[in-house]
Amino acid sequence: MKLLHTADWHIGRRLHGFDLTDEQGNAFEQIEAIAKKEQVDGIIIAGDLYDRRLPAESSVAMVNQMLQRLNLTDHFPVYAISGNHDSATRLATGTPWFKQTDLFLHTALSQAFKPVELADTQIFLCPYFEPFDAQQYFDDDSLQHLDQAFARVVDEMKKAFDPSKKHLLAAHFFAAGSSTTDSETNLTVGGLAAVPTDLLADFDYVALGHLHGKNALHMRQARYSGSPVKFSLSEAAQEKGVWIVDTDQTPVKLTFKTLTPIHDVKLLTDSFDHLIHSTDDPAIDHDDYFGITLTDTQPIPNVMARLREVFPKIVTLSRQDGFSTQVRYQGESGQQIRQKAPMTLLKDFYEQVAKEPLTPQQEKWAKTTLKQASEGGQPS
Amino acid sequence: MKLLHTADWHIGRRLHGFDLTDEQGNAFEQIEAIAKKEQVDGIIIAGDLYDRRLPAESSVAMVNQMLQRLNLTDHFPVYAISGNHDSATRLATGTPWFKQTDLFLHTALSQAFKPVELADTQIFLCPYFEPFDAQQYFDDDSLQHLDQAFARVVDEMKKAFDPSKKHLLAAHFFAAGSSTTDSETNLTVGGLAAVPTDLLADFDYVALGHLHGKNALHMRQARYSGSPVKFSLSEAAQEKGVWIVDTDQTPVKLTFKTLTPIHDVKLLTDSFDHLIHSTDDPAIDHDDYFGITLTDTQPIPNVMARLREVFPKIVTLSRQDGFSTQVRYQGESGQQIRQKAPMTLLKDFYEQVAKEPLTPQQEKWAKTTLKQASEGGQPS
Prior knowledge:
- The structure is a homodimer.
- Chain A has helices at about 20-35, 55-75, 90, 95-100, 130-140, 145-160, 270-275, 305-310, 325-330, 335-340, 340-355, 360-375; strands at about 1-5, 15, 20, 40-45, 80, 105, 115, 120-125, 165-170, 175, 195, 205-210, 220-225, 240-245, 255-260, 265-270, 290-295, 315-320.
- In chain A, helix 11 (about 340-355) packs across helix 12 (about 360-375).
- By secondary structure, chain A is α/β, with parallel strands linked by helices.
- Chain A is elongated and about 95 Å long.
- In chain A, the strands form five sheets. Chain A has a six-stranded mixed sheet, covered by helices on one side.
- Chain A folds into three domains: about 1-260, Metallo-dependent phosphatases (Purple Acid Phosphatase, chain A, domain 2, 4-Layer Sandwich), CATH 3.60.21.10; about 265-325; about 330-375, no CATH class.
């Protein structure tokens, strides 16, 4: 059996206000092409199809069309679960009919224990759940934390294990030992909501969703596919793609197939001057999404507008070393500054910002204006 | 062919703040029971399955469960369309799969022209649409109003007519000549958004949705089923139910099957005293929803709270004849009133409200207090 493992589509997601519809649509088409080329026997989507529990109509139309294409047009079996970003209730719409064409989309914990039975493989589809759901399902209030709940869930799954078959699990959670990036939700922070990886040891492969980087967990038989698209600057260095899982081999053979974005998400650290004059630099695709860090320390008037002329899709802009003016002012106390004459303050300020002294004419204007201001009169 | 015609479920609707989930669930079960008893060959739902374009999760779960029960559990073919209250995009979720079990749910105008082909009948499912949709579909900007657009739509449908079969249409709009009630949307007000009934003449039966009363249109071969539940006081007098349509007869034979609410919606006009003492009246089910009109003309302290002790589900409360105090004051001008002494005003006011004069002790207190107030002192 050859399966394609993807997750965390997050349809509807934006990158600091930038629409990612085209990126997500394009990544989907690459996934579809890989599935066809590899002639996979099915596609696992390990949760977070949507970015929000209440998706926009445009997102609903997009996910509907994607599932339709994979399952009804291309005739791929699909094995999917809801993630913590999905509304399990809304995602459940239509699922009783989907099974007829081997589209399995599980959204309730109760569906986790009856595997999809293939000739040589059992696929357990465990949607995202919270300890409370396990307490309800097992009628057991002692399942206070996710690790306890998940241990109980795996025990229950094992009761259905057919020893003559391989056992696959699709699930959506934070496996202990994995590193988080800042585009996942707060739910992943802290140890409470983590699942110890040893609970996954009884499966031949665990197709995980939740963390967006494929290297977030290094276990031979459990992997995050990561998201198909970079959703934050913290994912800039990540390679995006899908796993091709060959279950005919023991251990299962994993091959990572990369996805190429239309516009990449990149971090760039350089001086304003270099950046502004980088238009001919073949190493830079100026249409990418950029997190720019300036090495300059002086103030730069209109800096964002001027940079956006060269890099239209700036996601964030920051300074590597702060501002030199701040450094200079560290030598003067508030008391010292307050003792200075207004004209001295003005001259110092102008020089710091403009990097040149006032001209004699400017100084004359300033003096006249200051005098009028102190006398309460109007400048002429 | 025997079909059940229902419409305007409006799942998620509330009646002046009262939850109608139980009423709607119960009405659904009655519809299901009628379909089974009548052994119908299919169920037409003529739009407005949801009350809102963005339904709550609980509403989504309810509609999902209802469609699943009719189609997958009871194996009824279902012929449904989206109404103006539905989000066509959200309602489209799963529809490509639904067809496999003869659940046809059309949400786009483009789906209106290919009928569902049964042995002796063609069913055209025309979702709610606006003139703009028709302009787009036909690439014809001249279709400015719904009557023009609908004429074009019917012309297009007729091209697919099989003369050897009966022709049924399910649609959701305001047919001219029908009477509106105030629980439909403003879209139905005025002639612009109406469809002339003569456009419906070429169909053997038109199963309409949009208006909530079954008597809103009297055409032999076109009917509103009305909503299964009363959604406003203006529907209090309506008989709710579904049509059983027998297409084997010419003209089609229509039988109305009534639905019985758990708690009815009723108008009640009586005196406060009668109503408060009506607890033993067998003609009144005090758990119904009531629009109460009081015949009293005097003010009644705490009137709503006292009535709610007897009628817990009061929807509205009004007066038939206004207040008698208002009538009395019509004889006095503002100028006349302002000339009265404060003590006279107080005595008159008390008498009007309490229907009895001040006692000597009350009058003494009032005089003392008025004197202190006019002197700016504090009452002792």
